Amino acid sequence: MDLLDRDGLTEREFLERYQPGDYERPSVAADMVIFTVTDAEADSYRKLPEKELRVLLIRRGGHPFLGKWALPGGFVRPDETTEQAAARELREETGVEDVYLEQLYTFSDVGRDPRTWVMSCSYMALINSDQVKLQAGDDAADAAWFKVTYRLMRESKELTGDGYIKTLQYELKLISEDAELTAVVEKTITVKPSSTATAYAVVSNDGLAFDHAKMIALAIERLRGKVNYTDIALHLMPGLFTLTELQQVYEVILDKELLKAAFRRKVADLVTETDHYTENAGHRPSRLFRRKMEE
Amino acid sequence: MDLLDRDGLTEREFLERYQPGDYERPSVAADMVIFTVTDAEADSYRKLPEKELRVLLIRRGGHPFLGKWALPGGFVRPDETTEQAAARELREETGVEDVYLEQLYTFSDVGRDPRTWVMSCSYMALINSDQVKLQAGDDAADAAWFKVTYRLMRESKELTGDGYIKTLQYELKLISEDAELTAVVEKTITVKPSSTATAYAVVSNDGLAFDHAKMIALAIERLRGKVNYTDIALHLMPGLFTLTELQQVYEVILDKELLKAAFRRKVADLVTETDHYTENAGHRPSRLFRRKMEE
DNA sequence: AAAATAGTGTCTTTCAGACAGTATTTG
DNA sequence: CAAATACTGTCTGAAAGACACTATTTT
């Protein structure tokens, strides 16, 4: 192919002479919502421990948002994709290598970073409690796992002339051993005859940096959506697990109780049974399952 | 809040003195997959016309990819979000203002643009045939609507030691009045005990610029996925439409025939019936419906 | 009447919700 | 035996698949 452009150049000539213009360019960061599930303290050793959904946050050691908690992340380098940058941050922060990683959304609101023009491509990572143990040797001293809850608090609908605006307010709560953060995220759905638009806004925010409350909210919504029709939740499970544990994970993600019989029917084709059982549990042993790797 | 950082600065002082470093930054473009549905020519005026799913492409007038077809798009400016940039491009290209717009994915492969470091945040827009008429006055002379088909051609699965790799090859065909483009997009799903990764690659590509074959493939997959559990397809319909037309749109998106009775039951709560009917159709008139704006 | 599309009725199958019942282990 | 969890059986009702049937218009 040797097409010539208006200046009579071939593509090779064009590229050899190409000089990037000096118009403004944004910095692009990759930020990660890293989820895991851990056992809460049980009242008695005969009772099963409850499961908690947790997110990793890092306390900011410099301006802006000094002292606030932020998602792990960093700037993308010219020789890597946003996904590679996310995986690199994940490795640096947690030592974990082989995890489920999914791009969520690219945030580009003007002024979202008070320093300069910064976009953020956000990712969701799911790691299981086996892998989390490796978290010891991280460089950011002020990293902590926060228990997450995300709950619809208020719902309203306003009719406009030719459509309506639905407003949903969610309370996002993040609780660690020594900090408790709360944010309210508002989801606004504007329905008009020829369009539907959804926008997120942070209404109040106590302790989270940047627009990271929005990112966490979006991640939870994605997780909740996918749990119902994929095997995504299995990435939060250790190698061997009981169906009751799996059900607890679904319940903590969806923030709602499920019926045992129906749940077992539903996940039957996502798991493979093994010949192992739990031991010394203070009650009847439970069969252990693995994630199904065929099909 | 007047916390001081290690240099003893308040946040305000820090920001006043902040100088962006001179590390490399990418350009960020917003590219759009604009879908619409139009009637194909009918054999006889007594037969219903078939529906076609179409995408807007623009022939490149300069290097790189001179003469190839590309998605409409452009660079994001510092005073706008990627979404605003997408909406701006859409307006410039088609004159259309009020449409369904959804962020798809941010592409950042190294070398995806041969000139320089460019990421692209891709969007999907759905516009209806009423709105498309406005397309006359566009600046890019070489814009054309292409009929799209996207079909699974080959499927294979290879077992690895502890998991498997599934490879799906899709043929993407784009046909306009005077051009026919074909690309093969390969979707690779790598399943390992603690992760699942999906990657897209363009295996062959005849006539599309950049990685735009991947973007279109991703857009179609998103559209197909959402059609089943949202009212997204209604954004492709004009103000009044028959249920048969709506079914045709579902069928052309999903590339599969649906059963009439079941379809009507399924969409019943997405539409509102009107008192209008089609006229002079050469057969029994059909009731016209609108998109349901309540609930 | 023929051609064409519009629209409905209903049987079957599948699957989720609901709930009760049985089974197994430890203290 | 009591406490605790594990696991199964089955009824019901909602929704999707399948297919046949009726209805209405134009030529």
Automatic annotation (TrEMBL), chains A, B:
Domain Nudix hydrolase: from-to ranges: 26-169
Family affiliation: Belongs to the Nudix hydrolase family.
InterPro entries: NMN_biosyn, Nudix_hydrolase, NUDIX_hydrolase-like_dom_sf, NUDIX_hydrolase_CS, NUDIX_hydrolase_dom, WH-like_DNA-bd_sf, WH_DNA-bd_sf, WHD_NrtR
SUPFAM superfamilies recorded: Nudix, Winged helix' DNA-binding domain
Gene3D superfamilies: Nucleoside Triphosphate Pyrophosphohydrolase (3.90.79.10), Winged helix-like DNA-binding domain superfamily/Winged helix DNA-binding domain (1.10.10.10)
This protein's record includes keyword Translocase: no
Residues in coiled coil: none
The protein, known as: NUDIX domain-containing protein
Record's keyword annotation contains Repeat: no
Domain of life the protein comes from: Bacteria
UniProt entry keywords in alphabetical sequence: Hydrolase
